[in-house]
Write a structure and sequence with these properties.
It contains 10 helices and 6 strands; from the N terminus they run βαααααβαβαβαβαβα. By secondary structure, it is an alpha/beta fold.
């Protein structure tokens, strides 16, 4: 793909890009459903809703099992279980620290843009030992009304780092996130931690990598395009 302008900003999704948290949040949500509603929710039930934010993540599975959620209470309980699960289990994906450091060394503006709530953002970053100060801005799902696949969160992140979307690289692991990135006018790197390359390309990924460790060479080429 020919780059018209160099990349000056990188906007990272969190879950499935910086850390492999998807199995753990599905485990926590499944425990909540069984504990409160007796619903036998499995990890596969949550898979279609990855990247859409916890409200839809829980709500989609509730619809399948005919459960009427108490949205705030049930989400809070899911996060409570999740935060108890992640110590010692949640780890950074390969290349996370190196890629963030390399991007910073090249003078790029960095944003974190996650559909998750801020409580999960803080918990994840603490667990993988990546300070929030590693990013110029961190945008959580509660700050936008329309979640991915709408572009709102990436447009807000680009605005806050002061870089036009066309000069930003969005790094995502979910089709909904890639669709949001393309709709925002960004170039997109798909990480195959959660979905396969074919799904990510169909959603609009310009490049594919197994993880950020495999994307370090791409970063160098984009900055000097």
């Amino acid at each position: 793909m020919k780059n018209l302008v160099p990349i000056r900003g990188v906007i990272f999704d969190m879950d499935g890009v910086l850390c492999d948290s998807e199995p753990l949040i599905a485990e926590a949500a499944g425990l909540m459903f069984r504990e409160k509603y007796g619903a036998p929710a499995t990890a596969a039930d949550f898979h279609p809703f990855i990247g859409t934010g916890e409200d839809r993540f829980l709500g989609g599975v509730a619809e399948k099992y005919g459960v009427t959620l108490q949205p705030g209470v049930d989400k809070d309980r899911t996060y409570e279980i999740y935060l108890a699960l992640i110590p010692g289990r949640l780890q950074p994906l390969p290349g996370t620290h190196d890629f963030v450091a390399a991007a910073r060394e090249r003078g790029l503006k960095l944003a974190l843009a996650t559909s998750a709530d801020r409580v999960k953002l803080h918990g994840n970053l603490a667990a993988i030992r990546l300070p929030e100060s590693s990013f110029d801005v961190a945008v959580a799902g509660g700050e936008v009304q329309r979640k991915k696949p709408y572009p709102d969160i990436f447009l807000l992140a680009a605005e806050r780092i002061g870089i036009p979307p066309a000069e930003c690289l969005v790094v995502e692991d979910a089709p909904s996130g890639l669709q949001a990135g393309k709709a925002a006018g960004c170039r997109c790197l798909g990480i195959t931690s959660t979905f396969d390359a074919a799904r990510l390309r169909a959603a609009g990924a310009d490049w594919i990598a197994a993880d950020l460790a495999h994307a370090l060479g791409l970063l160098a080429s984009l900055v000097t395009a």
